[in-house]
Amino acid sequence: MFLTDRIGLPKAKKAPRSQTNGETKRITINGAEIESQAGESILSAALRQGINFPHSCRVGGCATCKCKLEDGKVKELTETGYLLSDEELDQGYILACQSIPQSDVKIQVENKETYTGHVLQQKILTHDICELTVQLNRAVEYKAGQYVSLSIEGMDAERNYSIANAPDRKGIVRFIIRKVPNGKLSNYIFDHNLSGKAVKVTGAFGNFYLRESKKPILMIAGGSGLAPILAMIEQGILNGIKRPLTVLFGARRREDLYKVTELQKIQKVWKGKFNFVPVLSEEPNGSSWKGERGLVTAKIKEHLSKSTEAYLCGPPPMVDAASKELVQNGISKENIFADRFTTIDHSLSLNIDDKDSRRKANYLDYLKFFLFHAVGLTSIVSLLMGGTYTTIGLFSLLFFYIVGDAISGDDKSTPSYAKPQVLTLQLWMALPILSFIFFCSAWSVSPVDTFGFGSLLTKVFGYDFNLAKENTSLWQHFYGVVLTGLMIGLVGTITAHELTHRTWDKISMLIGRWLLAFSFDTIFSIEHVYGHHRYVSTTEDPATAPRGRNVYFHIFASTIKGNISAWEIEVKRLKRKDLGIFSYHNAFIRGHLMSLSLVAIAYLIGGIPGMCFFIAAGLFGKALLEIVNYMEHYGMVRLPEEPVQPRHSWNTNKRISSWTMFNLTRHSHHHAQGEVPYQDLRPYPNAPMMISGYLTTIVVALIPPVWHYLMTPKVLEWDRKFASPEELELARIANEKSGIPALLESNKH
User: Fold this and answer.
1) Element (H, E) at 291
2) Which residues does 689 contact at the CB level (< 8 Å), separation at least 6?
3) Residue 316: which domain range?
């Protein structure tokens, strides 16, 4: 369904954040009317009803779904200052993924016109490249190099394709289309006679076009990426451009080349110096090919001058490699323009809006999440009783999770909860529980009976807690540090993960940030929501571990890069709002001060031993988070410009892990729809699966040889079963860098 243009609507009004309404609301998007369900965001409602709404992260981290609220009221779920400027906020812009209608609303999404027409000609150029010529009802307004959205009669699918010719007054446009394995539209184009078929084109989009200057031009194309290059060259000829132009065209074999004759003829009509260089990367040595061989990126250096302006188009790995080569050879990023060709096979995406029948939650469904609190209270008893009880407490916890997950099976239920406020209260209870664990752990190593706490307990329960503390050995205190660190991770970080996603709820955010303070990681509330969810499974994400990485290296690398990322995100927000960087408004600084205050309190409770105990436990809790990050996205790849899908996270439905971690285990759905509360996350049994439950997988990750032995087959299976063609190219690059023999070997096939 295409969005239609609609302008001249009334000025926007925003609802107070406290206002709520459970009724169905009408949403008008560029004139197209849909309905939203109670508590549903504008974006979720649009996607559920077939609206082709621009989006990516779905958690308010990228601004791809930015739109203008023309009329009505919305409840905003996030701090839009992280992404929208004051000017945009004044003009009524909102993030569709973070806006819940509180009344009927009208919004305007930046949109382009839709054109209709029919197929004039269909020509097969190579075994996987087809040229499609279309006659439209009127001329399309576009710059040579831009792309449009194309749909064809007989196929319920639309895809983006660059136009391969300069603007034509008669409305003729040409497309060069690559056949994608399992690609619905591209396979339909190849397998059917489309002559006379009706088409619909919407656009144009993109910022890939020839800039005006006098600099020499270097154009690099791969695969169907030649399309916008041809359009820009044709436009250059029409405009009489005299700039030197070199075109590097990369292909695998001679039979993969196309449009060679046309490109060679351009030399006669291009008014400046013209050079066309086809490069084959996999042409057999015994063939008659006398042209260039190797990677097209290896030929860049010999065709450069200091003032070269470069235009790159093709598969993302080629574009990224070419960009890197250009920068290394002195070309500034301002002179590099790129268009990554992505052809995601959407059949690989799991349905994140499925409507499985959901039974009404019973008492047991509410009670199962209290198992989390029982774990926390049990650890308190173990720490207070000291000695052997601390050891028993730690190893009983490990046994409970590892063996429990192994024998209890999977939990695939997603009941409908009539009282979600009870579940929120369960989350909030984590702060008093963790605070008491914090006190007990610091008291357990204190040289004195702080506040007479031990004497009071002894009087009440008849067990000499002070004597037990004195008789606790150094090793048993070490086990206490590990146990406390586990609680900081389980009770603190996991709960905070859920709470800090509720950016619209000040109480949840406050509790969540204090829970994170115990692991010195309040920056998680910034980087995770506005960084990790945006860049997950890409090389830009500090938390995503590349193939072959050691978990111990990842702990340090992710921690350092995560803090840098959070600082940069927060500084950008403060600058947008014209607030001082080194001020109370800086959430990064405030967060670390919160952690320092806990260090001071630990000192007051337990002196130097109590302070050191807490610091060690807190750092271990932080390390646990990075280990969890390591195993949740290890080895996965994603194109940054493509929306996050369930396939981009490792999932598990193990019962004990799910119940005691507020469904963090259902990570595939969480990253696909970050706004969904934990109780509504779906199990997705067909998603990529972890080794086992969370604690089991953590233990395995801590033994790198075992980890790589078990995970390498899973990564290869992910490549075969889930990766799109472009992601397979990224996977090949990741395999080369991994140093793991099995991954290196897979690149040969």
Assistant:
1) none
2) 650, 651, 652, 714
3) 217-343
